[in-house]
Amino acid sequence: MKLPTPGSSIRIRLLLASTLVQVVLLSLLLINSARLMNDATNASLQTMVGQNATMLHAMATAYGEQGQYDAMQDVLGELLTDANEGLIYVRIGREEGPALVQAGLPEMTTLPDAISNLERPAFGAGQQIIHVRAPLLLERNEVGFLQFGVSASVLAAARNAILQQGAAIAIAEIALTVALLSIIGYLLTRNLGHLLAGSRAIAEGRLDHRIPEQGNDELAHLARRFNIMASRLQERIRELEHDALHDRLTDLPNRALFVEHLNSALGRQHRSEIFSFAVLTINLERFHLVNDSFGHAAGDAVLRTIAARIDKMIREGDIAARVGGDQFAILLDGLDSTAEGLRIAERLRETVEQQILVAEDHVFFPKTRVGLALSDPEVVDGEALLRDSDNALHQAKHSGAAEVTVFHASMHKRAVYTLELEAELRTAIETKGLVAFLQPIVSLETGQISSFEALARWPHPRRGLLSPTEFIPLAESLGLIHEVGLLILDQVCTSMRDWQRRFPGNTIPPVSVNLSATQLSYAPLAPELIERVSANGLRADMIRFEITESILAKTDGPAVLTLGALRAAGFKILIDDFGTGFSALSYLHTIPCDLIKFDGTFVRRIDKDARLEAIVRRSIELAHDLGMAVVAECIETRSQADVLLALGCDYGQGYLFGRPSSPQDMERQVFDMPRPEIHS
Hints:
This protein has 680 residues and is an alpha/beta fold. Helices cover 50% and strands 18% of the residues.
């Protein structure tokens, strides 16, 4: 037990302060008492000296007038025999010569120094005899002296006894005060000590500690309030711990607690070779429609219903948790095979997808996707296993067909690859690491290069040259596609400006640059593109912009306005991938464009499918009637080019005429060779 120090204990500080006050007060009392005793002793001494002086002077005068000093000495001798208090000796004599009267203290041969009887004698420390000397008139008017001594031992003893008794009383009073204050301090502060011990216990995390409630004073009431506070704090801590590990809406374990259960299951698997388990991740599709249509309260009710169904459906020992907004996870504790996990997943999916009544008169049919990850002895982290299940869930979402997908290692590799590529793509955009390759578009009639399409390429330092399919979808998902488009446009403008400077007498073919749907939703896009082209000193007819036909499905959207502004500024618009995804013929007359590009699906079998040939012929005729030129993409053989030329197609693009290459390679074809070499 740690003893309290004077600086830390209120009780000890109170005791020391009270004792100090008592010592000071009693010391002052003793000093004053000693002063009074000295005054009383001195007064008594003065009285005794005065009385003896008067008596002796009278005797000396009476006997001296008759010259009877011997008789006086006999009287005084009898009086002073064995005297040890009061008058103890007398000497009368001339200034020189033997003493006339010598009574008392016969052993004293030399007279000690004495005070005059005119002085007031005072009692000094260690002083036992007061010597007094006074002048005396002898016979024949001779001046002599009278000297006597008075003993003060009794007075001194009485004074010392009184002072000692006072000191003893003072010490006893101090001891009694210390004892009483100690008892009173203990009685007053014992609950305070309990409070201190209780507060220390609470600070150390021992929330179950309670202090005794003794007495009915203020500290006892404080002790009762302390116990109430500790109980409520303990209850609140339990609630916080529960909330920290559980989802407040569904009361299921949250992600943190679920991962702890996964780590525990992994530990059991490492201890037993026959134990295996699995993790299911369930996602509700189209759940946002409930929130958007009926409000978040209805959405919360749906989530609680789903959670109750899952919790009721799982086996004993399994753990269900809510790990995201509309995502749940289940630990299947103990599986015999993958097939068993799939069967459980299917049953859960069927149970969850039963209809739910929303907003009293509306029914919601949940649609779910499930990812399944089996335990692996090489996996040592629950987060990794949950991540694998989540990767399988994403695969199930993107596959479109599979409602339950089992995790494979390739999914994790793909996810890691995507994350790495994302960071590298951001760096490549910042450092202008993406480059614009050009693919020629030729006249099918003359074989001359009429224009180019700019295609983004990424010369990756480790993975080599990456095609747009590797990073353009990623750039779109990350919201970086606008930066990529502007980077390619800047590089195209730089190359064409360089060609203008180096080949002033040559006609420079225009270059088309792709615009994404995300870019076209950006209202100030047209002014920004116009300003960038103009800043490079290029005419509007030297740059073209390509869009996919799906962008024009909404004829009243911002894309149509942007394209109208670009055409008004002198830029030509190309519709890429024409004929895929939407029935473009239905709105071809309303869209602001100058050229259409037939998708490669129409071209690859154009020389082998008569029905496809008829569709392409009619489409080309319609485009021409509307004043639009036609480009056929993905031409790879001479036969395809001949058929398209016969159908009236204006231009062709594909590997037959050239692969996408750097502007430097295209430069040699355009300015050094009159015609590109066409391979059959």
